[in-house]
Amino acid sequence: FFSSRRRHTRYWRDWSSDVCSSDLIRLRQLAAAAGRDDLSVCVLEKGDEVGAHILSGNVLEPRALDELLPTWREDGAPLGVPAADDYFMFLTETRSLRLPTPPQMHNAGNYVLSLSALTRWLGGVAEEAGVDVFPGFAASELLLNDGSAVGPLSAAAAAAKGGKKRRGGFFGLGAAGPPGGLGVRGVATADVGRAKDGSRKDTFAAGTEIVGRLTLLAEGARGSLSESAMAAFGLRDACEPQTYALGVKEVWRLRDDADHVPGRVWHSVGYPLDAATYGGSFLYHMDDRRVALGFVTALDYANPSLSPYGEFQKWKSHPAVRPLLAGGEVLQYGARVLNEGGYQSVPRLAFPGGALIGCAAGFLNVPKIKGTHTAMKSGMLAAEAAFASLAAADGDADAAAAAADTEGAPVDAAADGPPPAPLSMDAYDAALRSSWVWDELKAVRNIRPGFHKGLLPGMANAALETYVTRGYAPWTLRHGRADHEATAPASAAAPRRYPKPDGEVTFDLLTSVARSGTNHDHDAPAHLRLVDDGVPTAVNWPRYGGPEGHYCPAKVYEYVDVEADGADAAAAAAVAAVAGAAEGAAVNDHTAAPTKALVINAQNCLHCKACDVKDVTQNIKWTVPERGGPKY
Fold first, then answer.
1. Which pLDDT tens digit goes with each residue over 60-78?
2. I need a surface site. Which of 91, 303, 384, 624 has the fewest CB within 10 A?
3. pTM to 2 decimals?
4. 251, 55 in Cβ contact below 8 A?
5. Selection from 427, 430, 433, 351 nearest residue 390 by Cα
6. Sequence-ordered list of residues with C-beta below 8 angstroms from that of 206, at least 6 positions apart, any chain
7. Distance between CA 224 and CA 211 in Å, rounded?
8. ω into 152 cis (within 30 of 0)
9. Which residues are catalytic?
10. 446-487: per-residue pLDDT in tens?
11. Burial, 295: exposed, middle or buried (Cβ in 10 Å; 0-12, 13-18, 19+)?
């Protein structure tokens, strides 16, 4: 909540996740410097605690943190260990070759640490500065100042009804935003206490509207409200489609005699992915014999049977990796998508009444494999623009109030009347594009799209961009399409096969999910929604072989036989009944009764957003649950 008027309290709403509270802390710094005791700041955090949903194998570049809190090292921050030697490897099925480490991947001066631990520490710094933090609150809709609301489901429904559809837009809203001064006035939180069938339990409580003069969205990659804002205000109209990757991660404690070197940073490309699929691994040596390791698979792959989780297990079995892990203990598992579009995929950042910050907008430097420092800097720039916007608006309001007082008229900022004009954050958009964040992203803009042609052409292009043009090429390569559009029919791709887990280094999926700490109320509405219940059995299964069951890293999606016995029978029959009724409308040339039904195990969800990105028909919409999720 952000109070910025002496006579009337309005509210600030910010969802601070990947920006590590940088915007909140910066706002309090500015308020203190200006003597603005009337400014108060609040964060809504959908995790059960600050840091609970923060997943990253992290080598922190401290540039932004040094600007925000110059004494953070001395103030008790969880430093981890200084980065030491860098390894960049090319893997074949049985061998490994060390390559020269690209300049962007040199990590001298950086720190290998737990980002969730750093986020918790920064949350404490923010609270000490006067910020109110409310964990366990999930915002489900954006409130507009005409009394309407928009969220992922309303956007999907509008598109399904034939609303004007453009790249990233709906409702026919132009690049300058919706007409009539429409803007965001806050958010609504989700209802709690509903049963799986939608009925109200004894514990039911309706969602709450939280209104504010400015709304910052820092939900991380593919945030549900961020995507709604981009669509509602046409923020993506002038940029390339965003492209994503899915990172699957574990934290291990190694055996006593393992080759553990605190600070060692190890990356690889090549095996187990084929030459047409972009991705690679990370393995970071932390303190206390721990390593953070994972595999990142770009979601623009074609083969619908590819499993990012399966590729991760195959990578761990490689002779260059398995000896390090053998005899160790897995401490945690998780997964999350990350933005890879870079410079050409950054949308307009400001909308009337708010802005996108952090990975909600997409500031990951892909060649550097870092985005925390750029996300934090974006939050700081947004805070400065917000403070200036509020100060300017309050100056005008105070002048008007003084004139009204002179005339003897009462002043009541809460009186009924037309909604106030939304404040502008355009200065933030301009500041970001004039900052070192923009320079950094522009210099490497052509490296990721170069890999759309395959691994070897991509590496050749990366060498050209790094050592010859040095980011000054007169061209900017395009991504061209969204990730789900790259999926090929099952008939056009050879099925990917994955070995049976050995239980020592590789594991079955449900065992891994148990290590994530994820938890949702089983008797609650599924937060993973289908726009059309008939599409999975009419399109996704017969044409693509049910890719949902392969790309999901938590076994949320399962296709089961309609005539299944046991526990799946009732669920299959119920889903198939709906699918059978909708099938003719979904795909006209499918008339036979479905033999498969899609069952959604929403309680397993890691909030990774892979389904929202990769669903080939864009029929799955990720919405916020009542509460819950992973505990990293």
1. 999 999 999 999 999 999 9
2. 384
3. 0.88
4. no
5. 427
6. 191
7. 18
8. no
9. 56, 336, 372, 552, 605, 608, 611
10. 999 999 999 999 999 999 999 999 999 999 999 999 999 999
11. buried
